[in-house]
Each structure stands twice: as C-alpha cells, then as structure tokens.
Design goal:
The chain is an alpha+beta fold. Helices cover 17% and strands 43% of the residues. The chain contains 2 helices and 6 strands, in the order E-E-H-E-E-E-H-E. The longest helix has 9 residues.
Length: 75
C-alpha cells in the first residue's frame, strides 16, 4: 500500500484508509472516501500541490494532506 503523494502523474488508485483521523474527516467531507477511485491529474514540479480526479470533480490538496491517504494502485 502506498500513500497518495507517492503516485506518479496519470496513475489510478482506490482509497484504502487514512493515517490522520482529524484530517480524514475533512477529506471525507470533500469526497475522499475509502473505496473511491482516484486519478492523479496534475502534480506541481516539487509535488505540492496535487490535483486528483474523484467522483467527477477535480480536487487539489497539499502534499502533506496527500501523505495521510493510503491507496491501492490500479494496474
């Protein structure tokens, strides 16, 4: 299992879990729910911020937030 910030541009994955319970609530309110498919759409040169496609919309987040989301990569 990897965290979201480790994924390369264009990668698809499924959200598995979160390491920060407080931040998890905020992320889940924005649609980042376990079991949701995501696609890495954009990544800044230094990896911050990261834009993901989830549930039909584009969500941008900081690298520190992405590091708290554990995903399973879809091959």
């Amino acid at each position: 299992m990897k965290n979201l910030s480790d994924l390369k541009l264009g990668t698809k994955a499924i959200i598995d879990s979160f390491s920060d319970k407080e931040l998890a609530l905020k992320l889940m309110e924005m649609g980042c729910l376990p079991g949701e498919k995501i696609h890495i759409e954009r990544k800044a040169p230094l990896g911050d911020p990261i834009a993901i496609s989830i549930s039909g919309y584009l969500l941008s987040m900081r690298k520190a937030e992405a590091e708290t989301i554990f995903v399973n990569e879809i091959k």
